[in-house]
């Protein structure tokens, strides 16, 4: 029996292990594959947009929960930007209107009114439970673990790029302006990941901690995956 403590990975190896979890990203979910291949009907796209809105609403709330657990001013100064990215600042028609406003414009571009979107009446229980699980994790976990859970954003630029490349071809009825949310997230996700990785690589240093980080990332991948399971079932025409 080998009782020796397993050796920790180097930062490079650990980051590679984190990135390898991308195999479980919802980019590979059958609903996402169908959506980006142009096989969804307008009602399905509206249903996806309406359900995903609940995730959009939860993101700045979970970021506020993480920030509340950060004792260090320097960490909060960086983190507060994530809240502003989604909630926006200043005028709702200005360039700093924020991600929730941009998602609302996406909704309008696919044929959902602002009022219908904001009523949350299309949000199904499975999506609510998945998003709430993310929010509750962020409230309760040590802040470095909650930061680690945001690292699914490593894989997000590709999913946004896929939508920008394929939607105009397959869904020309959606006004191109409506896709601005996806465009805006590409640089923001990369910036978030740079910070999130810095925290994760310096906090999870033993072999056991590194395994814990992988578990956290898989938990978050499962949240995204189960959202699409629920959406796929609810949005079937
Ligand atoms: O469209 C997507 O597939 C997708 C996925 C994710 C993600 O990987 O969690 C995020 C986003 N978009 C996104 O737009 C976003 O702002 C975002 C923030 C976070 C996070 O965990 O803090 N994830 C994501």
TrEMBL record:
Annotated gene: pqqC
PANTHER family registered for this protein in UniProt: 4-AMINOBENZOATE SYNTHASE, PQQC-LIKE PROTEIN
Reactions catalysed according to its record: 6-(2-amino-2-carboxyethyl)-7,8-dioxo-1,2,3,4,7,8-hexahydroquinoline-2,4-dicarboxylate + 3 O2 = pyrroloquinoline quinone + 2 H2O2 + 2 H2O + H(+)
Keywords in alphabetical order: Oxidoreductase, PQQ biosynthesis
UniProt-recorded name of the protein: Pyrroloquinoline-quinone synthase
Pathway stated in the Swiss-Prot or TrEMBL entry: Cofactor biosynthesis; pyrroloquinoline quinone biosynthesis
Residue ranges of domain Thiaminase-2/PQQC in the record: 17-229
GO MF, one annotated term: pyrroloquinoline-quinone synthase activity
Enzyme Commission code: 1.3.3.11
Coiled coil (residue ranges): none
Function: Ring cyclization and eight-electron oxidation of 3a-(2-amino-2-carboxyethyl)-4,5-dioxo-4,5,6,7,8,9-hexahydroquinoline-7,9-dicarboxylic-acid to PQQ.
Domain of life: Bacteria
Any Pfam family the entry gives: TENA_THI-4
Family: Belongs to the PqqC family.
Uppermost EC category: oxidoreductase
């Amino acid at each position: 029996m080998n009782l020796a403590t397993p050796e920790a990975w180097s930062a490079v190896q650990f980051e590679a292990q984190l990135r390898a979890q991308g195999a479980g990203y919802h980019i590979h979910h059958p609903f996402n594959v169908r959506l980006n291949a142009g096989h969804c009907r307008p009602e399905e796209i509206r249903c996806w947009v309406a359900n995903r809105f609940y995730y959009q609403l939860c993101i700045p709330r979970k970021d506020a929960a993480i920030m509340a657990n950060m004792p260090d001013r320097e960490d909060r100064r960086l983190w507060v930007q994530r809240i502003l990215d989604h909630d926006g600042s200043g005028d709702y028609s200005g360039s700093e209107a924020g991600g929730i406003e941009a998602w609302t414009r996406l909704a309008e571009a696919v044929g959902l009114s602002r009022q219908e979107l904001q009523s949350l009446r299309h949000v199904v229980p499975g999506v609510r439970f998945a998003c709430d699980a993310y929010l509750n994790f962020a409230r309760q976990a040590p802040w470095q673990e909650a930061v680690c859970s945001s690292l699914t954003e490593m894989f997000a630029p590709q999913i946004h790029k896929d939508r920008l490349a394929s939607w105009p071809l397959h869904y020309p009825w959606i006004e191109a302006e409506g896709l601005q949310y996806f465009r805006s997230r590409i640089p923001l996700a990369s910036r978030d990941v740079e910070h999130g990785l810095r925290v994760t690589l310096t906090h999870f240093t033993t072999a056991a901690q590194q395994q814990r980080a992988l578990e956290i990332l898989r938990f978050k991948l499962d949240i995204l995956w189960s959202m699409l399971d629920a959406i796929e079932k609810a949005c079937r025409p």
